Amino acid sequence: MNIWKISLQNIKSKSLYTFLSVCILSLSIALLLGVQQLKHTFKNQIETQLGHIDLVIGAKGSPLQLVLASVLHLDNPTGNISYAEAKKTANNPMVKMAVPISYGDTYKGYRIVGTTDDFLTIYNAELDTGRSVKTSMEVVLGATIANTLHLEIGDTFLSSHGLVENNMDLHTDELTVVGILKPTQKVIDRLIVTNLESIWDVHHHHKDEGAENHLDSHHHHDHETVEEDKEITSLLVTLKSPRALLTLPRKINKNTNMQAVLPKFELHKLYEYTSVGFRTLSWIAYLILIISGLTIFISLYKMVKERAFDLAILRTYGARHFQLIKMVLYEGLAIACVAFLVGFLLVKMGLLVVLKYITANNQQNILQDLPFHDVLQIGGLVLLMVILSVSMAIYPIIKMNISTILSHEK
Fold it and tell me: Is the pTM of this model over 0.90?
């Protein structure tokens, strides 16, 4: 007696129930897998994008906005700070490395960041081709930008003023590509990196062009403003020891007109806020999983009751209880396997659409593959639910009275 063939015949005989069971269960699996993948992606983004940044120092304002703008490059900066004052903080004995960054321009939506060579060290970024920036108006491209915009070494382009892509407010100074970075899967992949002088020069010229004509030509030598008068957007700091996290931010916030923010703390708060949505979706998915378990139980129980005579006949021909139970179990497992496959394909196709949207809006592929142990965990949960449904559905088989069933049928 081939148990698998009998189970498949049973599934075919009640195709509508099977279809409903597969649909509900696959929807639940897709939701659980999707939520887990989004959670994993978000958490990974928070952990990896920080690099070696322990502290962000910038203008007073929203701490979260400062972190989003200076670390993830997703928001507008809170303002500028004095470069001279930032350098004083950078010379503090508790500071291991301090990297100034300044930005306010873009090229085709990608931000141009003026900084120092240490900026690459924060993200462990390495040059793929070309060289690092040596003089003003030279840039190094992140891997995503080079691939998307098809820019190569020696290419030149004009940046636009502001953090929103536009072709109306273009600077006249050409930027030249001198290097391209290797992919890092970090925020630096979608940044155009140059030195601070490029940002200052471009904006100095920009101000000159917008100024009134009362400025005479003999004032050109005034363009060489002393460095102490310059401004930067923020300072990314790596500390020598965790102990400095307790004292340095407090000292800066109290004694200067700047604010010092712990990016890990701010991003953790953001993760906690968004986790409410993830938890809600997870509970909805678990509820649907319970409903799908009930559907499978009803389907199997109905089959056992309706085919009681056939099962009794099988028993008279020598089939054991265990073989009849296996028949029901195989049916439940077949539904679960098909539903898991459909749910997995659903979440892959759904996230592919999300991926295209995110790539178009943020110029970066941020979705991470779901770890295998998470897939295994959800698969185990579904298997447990199916076994529970089968355990309840086989109760009539265990209590089967063959003579009574056959006599009633006659």
Answer: no
DSSP letters for 158-197: EEEESSS--SSSEEEEEEEEEEEEPP-SSGGGGEEEEEHH
Q: Residues near 114 by Cβ (< 8 Å), separated by ≥ 6?
A: 101, 102, 103, 194, 195, 196, 197, 198, 199, 200, 232
Instruction: Give the integer Cα–Cα distance in Å for 86 and 195.
Output: 16
pLDDT tens digits, residue range 126-165? 999 999 999 888 999 998 888 888 888 999 988 888 766 6
Give the DSSP per-residue string, 104-152: EEEETTEEEEEE-THHHHHTT--EEEE----STTEEEE-HHHHHHHT--
Q: Residue 43 burial (CB < 10 Å; 0-12/13-18/19+)?
A: middle
Choice among 146-160, 173-187, 301-315 with the minimum mean pLDDT: 301-315
Helices 308-316 and 402-409 cross at an angle (nearest 10°) of 120
Residue with tokens 């028949």: 327
Q: Say if strands 95-107 and 156-161 run parallel, antiparallel, or are unpaired.
A: antiparallel
Query: Which residue type occupies 284?
Result: I
